[in-house]
Amino acid sequence: MRKFLKLFLTVLPFVYMGAIWYMSSQPDDLILDLPSSSVDHFIKEALHLVEFAILYMLFAAALAAHSKLTSSWSILAAILACLYGVCDEIHQSFIPARSASLIDVIKDVIGVLAAYFHVRYHYFKHHRGFLTIIEKMTKKAVS
């Protein structure tokens, strides 16, 4: 079970990146199309923050599953999540009916930073939270 969990958590960020890429390839009303345009617009804009915060957290969970979540690796995971946000915006610029903007990249980065500082506070400073649980669940029992 421990090996499966490690494998699952290792693959999950890349599956999620594929899902982001797929959704970015579709019209912006494919997933969510609410009748009120202002509410629809607000939710879609807020999703940038959440979407890339999740990506960073999935990278952090994969690192925790392998007992490799250190400050340095955490920063690298945050950088990778931010760079993927940039790549996603560039990708969207080539999709008809989609657009790319610097504001969207900034929202992606803010989402990653929010998650990064959450991990710094809860995991590194207070040694608590779901990443600590993942680390304990995937550690080999020492006899």
Output the radius of gyration: 17 Å
- Overall mean pLDDT stands at 89
- Helix/strand order, N-terminal first: HHHHH
Q: What's the helical proportion of residues?
A: over 70%
Number of strand segments: 0
Figure out the total of helices.
Answer: 5
Shape: elongated
Low-pLDDT stretches are none
Please describe what this structure looks like.
This protein has 143 residues and is mainly α. It has one domain. It has five helices and no strands. The chain has helices spanning 2-24, 37-65, 71-93, 102-125, 130-138. It is elongated, with a radius of gyration of 17 Å. The mean pLDDT is 89.
Please summarize what this structure is.
The protein is an all-alpha fold and 143 residues long.
Please write out the topology.
Elements: H1 2-24, H2 37-65, H3 71-93, H4 102-125, H5 130-138
Helix pairs in contact: 1-2, 1-3, 2-3, 2-4, 2-5, 3-4
Which terms would index this structure?
143 residues, mainly alpha, 5 helices, 0% strand
